[in-house]
Design a protein that fits this description.
It is elongated and about 80 Å long. The protein is built from ten helices and 13 strands. The two termini are 40 Å apart. A hairpin with a 4-residue loop joins β12 and β13. By secondary structure, it is of the alpha/beta class. α4 crosses α10.
């Protein structure tokens, strides 16, 4: 049953339903306990395959006050007949095993109840153990970190050589305090400190990616490129392709016209299956047609959307979301509210 927490305190159960893994329980005379039958289910949580859905309303109230009462009610209903048949048969299900408060295998500092509430634990853990790099923590890179930090990836390596300044605060996730801006921390140190509150494994690299350090990308499962165009970018791309490491490159081209902002957001995907589209789809130099995605106007909601499109594409590649088009180039046009997919593999 989904566990609801607020500040690590269990909240009253949202309903009286429970899922059960095992054969259908029976009365002492062998009849199925049909009074609580709700239906059949077919999903797996942490290796337990639930088969049945039960509904046992408490009496006289319609809701359980807490999880203890709810679980105890189901224990009594399911194990009671066995104890009735053999009172001294050792059929008490309450074995009181030791349950560690902290899961040493988890990257999170507190329980991921979002996945359990939505019953998507097995899907969420498809990214467990992965190592991800984010190159550039400008507007879009910061939001990529925010979204990736909430997944089960083992390590998130963040690369940026800039200082977190006042203008960064207006296009970054969260709300930086004035005192934090006064510290003049490297961007990676600022973000690592924030997300360390939630999880382990955010590893800061207070430097831009370069020929001297790009070998550190060789052990990554995936790379997000949110860096500026330049020859270094070309070198990084060539190295990732040679190592067979998939990646996405993001860009924004936003302009001011008629006192309004228009433009396009871009996500270019590269995998082992397709990388012959890069010359037309990724800027490697400042200026020219390919430089249209590297203009400096950046607005928080556009950065966030560009990041979301990139993270969704990443999750599709690893089976979290279905991927019907397998596009390797997509754009979002602000004025038309269009998402266009091209370069399908």
């Amino acid at each position: 049953m989904p566990l609801a927490l607020a500040d690590n305190v269990a909240q009253p159960p949202a309903d009286h339903v429970a899922q059960f893994a095992g054969d259908y329980p029976c009365h002492a005379d062998g009849r199925e306990i049909s009074e609580m039958r709700l239906g059949t289910v077919d999903f797996t949580v942490d290796g337990f395959a639930a088969k049945w859905s039960f509904s046992a309303k408490p009496k006289p109230a319609d809701k359980y006050v807490n999880f203890y009462d709810k679980v105890l009610a189901y224990i009594r209903r399911i194990s009671g007949p066995a104890q009735e048949l053999e009172p001294d048969g050792g059929h008490d299900p309450r074995t009181y095993p030791l349950v560690n408060e902290d899961d040493e295998d988890s990257v999170f500092r507190y329980v991921d109840t979002a996945s359990s509430r939505a019953e998507i634990v097995s899907v969420s853990k498809k990214l467990k153990g992965h190592r991800v790099a984010i190159l550039g923590l400008g507007g879009t890179g910061g939001y990529i970190l925010d979204l990736v930090a909430k997944t089960h990836v083992e390590e998130i390596h963040i690369f940026d050589g800039d200082v977190f300044s006042q203008h960064n605060a207006f296009r970054a996730p969260g709300a930086a305090a004035g005192a934090e801006l006064a510290e003049k921390l490297p961007k990676v140190a600022y973000f690592a400190r924030i997300y360390d509150r939630m999880r382990r494994g955010v590893i800061p690299h207070p430097e831009f990616i370069s020929a001297d350090n790009m070998a550190s990308l060789d052990t990554m499962n995936f790379v997000f490129m949110a860096m500026e165009a330049g020859e270094v970018k070309r070198l990084v791309v060539e190295r990732l392709i040679s190592k067979g490491i998939p990646f996405v490159d993001v860009g924004m081209g936003v302009y001011l016209a008629n006192d309004m902002l228009g433009g396009t957001l871009r996500v270019t995907t590269v995998t082992a299956a397709k990388h012959d589209h890069l010359s037309d789809r990724m800027p490697f130099s400042n200026g020219g047609i390919k430089g249209e995605y590297d203009k400096n106007i950046q607005i928080a909601e556009l950065n966030a959307m560009n990041a979301a499109l990139a993270v969704i594409r990443w999750k599709k590649l690893f089976g979290v979301y279905p991927d019907f088009s397998n596009e390797h180039y997509s754009t979002y046009v602000i004025g038309r509210n269009d998402v266009n997919n091209e370069d399908e593999a």
